[in-house]
Specification:
alpha/beta, YaaA, 8-stranded mixed beta sheet, single chain, Peroxide stress protein YaaA, 10 helices, about 250 residues
């Protein structure tokens, strides 16, 4: 099973690993595109006004440009510890047992605008690049990654549970992947999608899938696993699941 997570704009700033070595990352088929994007980001960081425009940043966020400028020299840390925020707080990989962490490292991967796909243990530096960006002189990220990453994901041979946000799913859709939508039920019975709750509960789903000793082989088994954990999950057919948060 492969569980695809969205990245986060916020990244842990620390790290004690060796500088970025693209050849050391998983999925070596993606190396040519990774090389193009890394070079482009490093070069772009030398022109702060252009970089702010391309990356959608303000002058107060120039520390992000400094991270990009140092992509090839700054320390790395495992990808699953590099990304931060609500989803990753709920995932809480640092609290896993050794056996759970080993399963998580095998199953978890992050869809990345810069690296395409990084496995949980892949060593990466802090950086700033979002799915909607277009770098000067390069095609849109969706055009780059669909050609390179799309076939990799489609041919993985694993059950894919795609928890990525829509923007990152669009970089490389996965036909037949299990998806999970999170909705909240208001007191009047109407439903709404709430960003914070969506991210937190997807983090919980990711933790369950990453650490279970079971090996789900389809959407029905994933649904059963989540229900056993006490989650209210609806399944109307196909490969889409809906996680329903009811008012307390």
């Amino acid at each position: 099973m492969l569980v695809l997570l969205p990245p986060s704009e916020t990244k842990a700033p620390d790290g004690d690993g060796a500088p970025l070595d693209l050849a050391a990352l998983g999925t070596p088929e993606l190396t040519p595109v990774r090389e193009r994007l890394v070079r482009a980001l490093v070069d772009l960081a030398a022109d702060p006004p252009a970089a702010r425009t391309a990356l959608g940043l303000s002058p107060g966020q120039d520390a992000e440009l400094a991270r990009n400028a140092a992509l090839c020299t700054s320390p790395t840390t495992p990808a699953i510890q590099r990304y931060t925020g609500v989803l990753y707080d709920a995932l809480a990989v640092r609290t896993l047992t050794r056996a759970q962490r080993a399963r998580a490292d095998r199953r978890l991967a992050v869809g990345s605008a810069l690296f395409g796909l990084v496995r949980a243990g892949d060593p990466i530096p802090a950086y700033r690049l979002s799915a909607g960006c277009t770098l000067p002189g390069l095609p849109p990220l969706r055009a780059l990654w669909r050609r390179a990453l799309g076939p990799v994901l489609a041919g993985s041979g694993e059950l894919v549970v795609d928890l990525r946000s829509a923007a990152y799913q669009s970089l490389a859709p996965v036909p037949g992947a299990v998806t999970v939508d999170v909705v909240s039920v208001r007191a009047d019975g109407s439903r709404t999608v709430v960003s914070h709750a969506n991210k937190a509960h997807k983090g919980l789903v990711a933790r369950l899938l990453a650490t279970t000793t079971a090996e789900p082989d389809g959407v029905v088994r994933v649904r059963a696993l989540l229900r056993r954990a006490g989650l209210h999950v609806e399944h109307d057919g196909g490969t889409a699941l809906t996680l329903v948060l009811r008012p307390s």
